[in-house]
Amino acid sequence: MQAKKQIQAELDFTRTFRLIAQAYEEIAVMKMRKIRNSVITTRQYLSQLSEVFFDVKQAQIRHKKMLEQMNKKKHMKKKQPQESTTAQPVSTERLNKTVSVFLSANTTLYGDLISRIFSFFIEKLKNDDSDIIIIGRLGRRLFDEQGPKRPYLYFELPDREITLEQLKPVIFHLVKYEKILVYYGRFDTIATQSPTVSNVSGDQPFPVLEKPRNLEERLGTDFLFEPSIESISRFFEELIASSLFRQTIAETQLARLGARIMSMERAQQNIEQDIKKLRSAEIKVSRLDQNRKQLDRLAGKSLWAK
Asked: What's an example GO cellular component term for this entry (predicted)?
């Protein structure tokens, strides 16, 4: 009798857990429907905008090289150093370094997505000495437990509904770097979310599903900038880079929702298997109980017969 009560209690608990998994999945589906179209549409828009950013950055590099060559020729002719009258770099505080940003999460129930992004992130870190920024409690825990013993800067952002004010401290640090690499989860389909890295500092176009245009053909393209290459470049580096970073935040939110849907779907399948096993055990215990009662009745009859 005790075994039967225990099985019934486990069945009740498992059914409750199934309802919780269903609720989490339905909530994730509703949130995905709300943001999916806007994220994908913005992805296409920013991918084209990032190509313009790439063109501006390459043009600025060529412009600096040209000015350096002109100054060198002037110095050679006059045989004495002169103070340059050319425009200064875009930002005097810019660090000539790379920063690698790991976008994780604060909570769980995202399947193995966060751990896959982390493995991808750590593998890339082996080949560089970039500064590290970690966003999210799960990422900090993974890095402290399994990552290399390297210093990092930590920020915590909500897993959803992030405001611009909450992003400002992160963006303030990012725009100081010459090269910004963001590691995050990319939404491909509901069943597929892949770890990826995006360069949001203009060194290459933002990744999209479609094949990008041949970059080598674009390197030699000349442009006319108004009012100046410096002011245009400053605009892109301060505003477009932050927009690209905000898009990676939205991308990883969408990927996490997809991962949660799949995780809850698998959880429900496992729960169904557990319920079948418990029902089978319940039937088995009931039959054993019936057999025991039948034996007791037969034993009673045999005693009365004597």
From this structure: proton-transporting ATP synthase complex
Q: Is 48 helix (H, G, I), strand (E, B) or coil?
A: helix
Q: With respect to CATH, is domain 26-262 assigned 2.30.140.10?
A: no
Residue 26 · residue 34 · CB < 8 Å: no
pLDDT number for residue 87: 39
Taking only the tens place, the pLDDT of each residue in 170-183 is 988 888 888 899 99
Going by their DSSP bridges, the two strands 192-199 and 153-155 should be labelled as unpaired
pTM here? 0.74
The gap between the terminal CA atoms of the chain, to the nearest Å, is: 31
Sheet with 153-155, side-by-side order of all strands: 153-155, 131-135, 95-103, 177-189, 192-199
Closest CA to 114 of 125, 100, 102, 104: 104
Neighbour count for residue 209 (Cβ, 10 Å): 10
β partners of residue 99: 131, 180
The percentage of residues in the chain with a pLDDT greater than 90, rounded to a whole number, is 36
pLDDT in tens, 67-98: 777 777 676 655 544 443 333 333 445 678 89
